[in-house]
Write a structure and sequence with these properties.
alpha/beta, Rossmann fold, L-fucose Isomerase, Chain A, domain 2, six-stranded antiparallel β-barrel, five-stranded parallel sheet, 15 helices
Length: about 475
């Protein structure tokens, strides 16, 4: 399956050589094949050699895009020459597409400033962007004002743009499950369903007692339980975990997955303490870890905007994400800290994963009731962190995002854990505290902050603090 499908609009101006359009089509086809992308664009018998120049061409291209609208993730505007800015803007308007847009312009060659090869796309790009603004469209730009599609610079631009498309489109139609009520004292994870719904993010709720009741009524020898039990044992080292606890996990997993499938939910946030331990006798963390590892992110403590943050990072990176506590200082290093949860992080973060007890919760809930937490250490590598928060008082969504590195610094403790290094970290903590953000953040083992920030700010119109390394 292709990474993404992009509608491609090749702009043209009637007094520039048609050969430039043909060359651009060939370049885009070669690039898309290399990057495993699909293109929806006019063929060479349509428009003018496959380009858009006139109102008639715009209608033809728009009709093609409308027929493929369910496949299209974004729009790529290609300018082999100055292009017709009105034709491009008209095409997008007539198509009815509401997806991210990337504008590319070819560079001129100093040795080819003759009539036969001159492009003037440098200037044409400014006019295209002007018209897109007039028509009310948000759009993305390449790192360099003019850039050849087959250059390494543009490949990076396009890779980032695809991440932006995945993030924007995924969030605009997300369906999240909230299982149970937040822990009583956790005002931290309050959120506004209405603000999320206004952005296309739906929240479906279910009472935890319903879930526990359905799980309790499933027979131990039910085939679904047997299959789920095998999946749990195959997922992580379960040595030392009582068989009764594993069976309870399997039953709960069956109920949660059935409920999510029934409502087409893409992610979940679960009341992970205290009721599930007191009334059912396990921690739900292993099941949450398994779902996150299968790209169905699951957040602790009914932190719904936390799972929105996880889902955004997952969409951008196409890899699992996790919810973390900004938990501890790391000795006296101002740019390092310890990330922790008791924990439910996806297996992809924890090569030494094992099913354990939640040692902190066990002090009040009993060790025998907390089997199901997962433990392990994240190895060194790239880190992106992010947080989405609903500012109910001001009727807006606010976010932050940034990058750092996981490190292999010494850390002798339990649970799911990591040491991270983030440049200018104290400024980030100042921003989080002064602006009332939650103690939770989402993390990804990738560097996708630029794409996430662009998706949040440019296309979703959320307030973004993009943490600076300076």
């Amino acid at each position: 399956m292709a990474q993404a499908t992009l509608a491609v609009i090749i702009g043209n101006r009637d007094f520039f050589p048609d050969q430039l359009v043909t060359e651009a089509r060939n370049d885009i086809q070669k690039l898309f094949q290399e990057m495993d992308l699909e293109a929806v664009m006019l063929d060479q018998t349509q428009g003018k050699n496959g380009s858009v120049e006139t109102w008639a061409h715009a209608k033809e291209a728009a009709d093609l895009f409308r027929r493929n609208r369910d496949l299209i993730d974004g729009i790529l505007v290609v300018l082999p020459n100055f292009g017709d800015e009105k034709g491009i803007a008209d095409t997008i308007r007539l198509s009815g597409l509401n997806v991210p847009i990337l504008v590319q312009a070819y560079p001129d060659d100093l040795d080819q400033f003759n009539v036969e090869r001159r492009r003037d796309a440098f200037c044409g790009k400014i006019s295209v962007c002007n018209n897109l603004r007039q028509y009310g469209y948000s759009f993305s730009l390449t790192s360099l004002h003019t850039v050849h599609p087959l250059s390494e610079s543009f490949r990076k631009d396009l890779k980032k743009f695809v991440s932006v498309c995945h993030t924007v489109n995924g969030l605009r139609k997300a369906r999240l499950g909230a299982i149970g009520a937040r822990p009583g004292n956790f005002n931290t994870v309050r959120f506004s369903e209405k603000l999320l719904e206004a952005e296309g993010i739906s929240v479906v709720t279910i009472d935890l007692s319903d879930v526990l009741g359905m799980a309790s009524r499933i027979a131990d020898d039910d085939a679904r339980v047997t299959d789920k039990l095998a999946a749990i044992k195959g997922y992580a080292n379960s040595e030392g975990v009582p068989s009764a606890s594993l069976v309870r996990m399997a039953k709960l997993g069956v109920v949660i997955e059935d409920w999510m499938a029934r409502y087409d939910l893409t992610a979940s946030a679960i009341q992970c303490w205290n009721s599930v331990q007191q009334n059912y006798g396990i921690n739900v963390c292993t099941l949450m870890s398994m779902m996150s590892n299968q790209l169905m992110p699951s957040a602790c403590e009914v932190d719904v905007t936390g799972v929105v943050s996880m889902y955004a990072l997952q969409l951008a990176s196409q890899t699992p994400s996790a919810l973390v506590d900004w938990n501890n200082n790391y000795a006296d290093d101002p740019n390092k800290c310890v990330l922790f949860h008791c924990g439910n992080w996806a297996k992809s973060f924890l090569p030494d994963i094992k099913i354990a007890t939640a040692e902190i919760l066990a002090t009040t809930l009993g060790t025998e009731n907390t089997y199901g937490a997962v433990a392990g250490r994240v190895p060194s590598g790239p880190l992106t962190f992010a947080r989405v928060s609903t500012d109910d008082v001001n009727g807006m969504i606010r976010t932050y995002v940034g990058e750092g590195m996981f490190t292999d610094d010494r850390l002798d403790t339990f649970g799911a854990r990591a040491v991270v290094e983030i440049p200018n970290f104290q400024a980030l903590m100042q921003h989080i505290c002064l602006n009332g953000y939650e103690h939770h953040a989402a993390m990804s083992a990738s560097h996708v902050a630029d794409a996430v920030a662009e998706a949040f700010g440019r296309y979703l119109n959320w307030e973004v603090y993009h943490h600076s390394c300076a």
